[in-house]
Automatic annotation (TrEMBL):
Location(s), subcellular: Cell membrane
Membrane topology: Multi-pass membrane protein
Domain VTT: 76-184
Family to which this protein belongs: Belongs to the TVP38/TMEM64 family.
Parts of the chain that traverse the membrane: 12-29, 41-58, 63-82, 88-105
Protein name according to UniProt: TVP38/TMEM64 family membrane protein
Coiled coil: none
């Protein structure tokens, strides 16, 4: 698959996913799912265990194929399942997706970066890969802080000499704080917006 075709496909998925999210937001808002925690949890509970599995799968896929900002999924986890269960589901899904992205890049090499991400992002972070120990340090810091493009960095790590052991350790240990900080901020903003709508 050519680079242009891959990017067009991802862009199409992004537009479609955004449309689905907007439609669901309107549907959920009209049924007070965002203003009543009990109503929202009852709605999700209606799907049983499959609801949690589908959400975890969604979180994993959105790391491998970054079609939506990851923060939307993190916020969704907390709204749908509550703060602690939502955080756990976010963590499981994102860790699975991060490890999958690393695996894909490890097998496909640098061409996969140019098929998915823009060259400006690649050029900005590729300078980190010149020194293996320095890359490991910067990668760990970036994964811990909720400001860097984590999805891209997982792919980039797969094109370096970073070991599986080190990568998995950084993801498993660094992601909880990252997800918690990111989700807390988004959750606060979301509730402020909802309060202004009343």
């Amino acid at each position: 698959m050519s680079k242009n075709l891959t990017k067009r496909t991802i862009n199409a998925f992004s537009v479609l996913s955004l449309a689905v999210c907007i439609a669901f937001f309107v549907y959920a808002y009209n049924r007070h799912l965002f203003t009543s925690l009990e109503a929202l949890q009852a709605y999700i509970a209606g799907f049983g265990a499959i609801g949690a599995l589908v959400f975890i799968a969604f979180q994993a896929v959105q790391v491998v194929v970054p079609i939506l900002p990851g923060g939307l999924g993190c916020l969704g986890g907390v709204l749908l399942f509550g703060p602690w269960t939502g955080l756990l589901y976010n963590y499981i899904g994102i860790c699975i997706g991060s490890i999958t992205a690393f695996c894909i890049a490890r097998n496909c090499g640098k061409p996969i970066l140019y098929s998915i991400f823009n060259e400006k992002t690649i050029a900005k972070y590729e300078t980190w890969t010149g020194n293996a120990s320095q890359f490991a340090k910067w990668f760990a810091i970036a994964i811990f802080l909720p400001v860097a493009p984590d999805d891209f960095l997982c792919y980039l790590a797969g094109t370096t000499q970073m070991s599986w052991k080190n990568f998995v350790a950084v993801i498993l240990l660094g992601k909880p704080a990252n997800i918690a900080l990111y989700t807390l901020g988004l959750n606060t903003v979301f509730h402020q917006i909802v309060s202004l709508m009343h």
